[in-house]
Amino acid sequence: MGGIILTGDRPTGRLHLGHYAGSLRRRVELQNSGNFDELYFMIADVQALTDNFDRPQRVRQNVIEVALDWLSCGIDPSKASLFVQSYVTELTEMTIYFMNLVTVSRLERNPTVKSEIQMRQFERNIPAGFFCYPISQASDITAFKATVVPVGEDQAPMIEQTREIVHKFNSLYGEVLVMPNIMLPDNKACMRLPGTDGKAKMSKSLGNCIYLSDDRETVRQKIMSMFTDPTHIKITDPGKIEGNTVFTYLDAFCSDEHFERYLPEFACLDDLKEHYQKGGVGDVKIKKFLNNIIQETLEPIRQRRSEFEKDIPYVYEILKKGSDRAREKAGQTLYEMRSAMQINYFDDAELIRQQAEKYSGNE
Ligand code: TRP
């Protein structure tokens, strides 16, 4: 009881099934569990700008897309604060103070930053803002005194960095910040859902995503052309499960009830896998099964989305209200930080009195 949740997404595109399996589904469960006092879901536009500063339109257009995706998955603005990062300017100030607590070499060792530097071939020409985004992410988390941060495993180095900053801040200035804990997806297949082409990750640039906002027919086509086992040519051939994208998706989405409903000739996923490996189960059959499950999962999301799409100004209002609440909370934390750091000059009557006394003999 009594925990505080914070997590967020960068507004650089529509959200896809990988986001859903890896985090959105979980967020809604956590929200509805009643186990948390406060929940904050952040649209990380400031962070998105660290590598899109030359494309502000991209970020601007996608803020509403992310909000719509969240709401359509069941994130409920009466239970959680949905907010926009840039609006909470307190976060920026906190980042500046945290910069004193982190070395350049530590940032260079951050595995996420490291691989992004390589991927983008930045070398020494990495923009300082991008280099420092783990510090800014520590502000996102600590400003809300989050106890639990539900994220994918790729974010683990960010939470680790945050924990180091919390430890350092608290031991230097006093116990102000709360130590956050990472919460990883519980199902292994959900940790990183591959793209429909079997590549390691769903990514917009690879064009291998199933979007939450895709219509029925688009989803069906994507599933029917999914990567399976290239050596499984005839139905009677034995098929492989490992690296077979359809089975990875089934691991992430299917339950025994789905078999009753859509594929009663098999009892459960293990049963289907066994038969597929022996031979005699065709790819079209497993794809149709997966399609039924994914359509069933996406249908309520699609319906809610179409309702919210009818009233876009209301969605912006939800974000504005959530941002106001987020600001208030971050403001409280920042106030405590400033006091602990002894930079609260004007509201500290004792400081003013002491300084006055120091000079009182000079008359
Ligand atoms: N880095 C996260 C991502 O790329 C987004 C993010 C920004 C975030 N600030 C956060 C996630 C704070 C959790 C907590 O998806």
Helix-strand sequence = EHEHHEHHHHHEHEHHHHHHHH
Overall number of structural domains? 2
User: Tell me, what's the shape?
Assistant: elongated
> Helix tally?
17
Number of strands: 5
Just name the CATH architecture of the largest domain.
Answer: 3-Layer(aba) Sandwich
Q: What about the largest sheet?
A: 3 strands, parallel
Determine and state the CATH class of the largest domain: Alpha Beta
Describe this structure in words.
The chain has helices spanning 17-33, 45-50, 56-73, 90-99, 104-109, 111-119, 128-131, 133-142, 156-173, 188-191, 216-224, 245-253, 256-262, 269-278, 283-309, 312-340, 349-358, and strands spanning 3-9, 36-43, 81-84, 148-150, 181-183. By secondary structure, it is mainly alpha-helical. The protein is built from 17 helices and five strands. The longest helix is centred in the last third of the chain and has 29 residues, at 312-340. It has two domains: 3-192 and 312-352, HUPs (Rossmann fold), CATH 3.40.50; 216-307, Tyrosyl-Transfer RNA Synthetase (Orthogonal Bundle), CATH 1.10.240.10. Helix content is 56%, strand content 7%. The strands form two sheets. It has a three-stranded parallel β-sheet. Residues 6-10, 44, 47, 137, 140-141, 149, 151, 155 line the site of tryptophan.
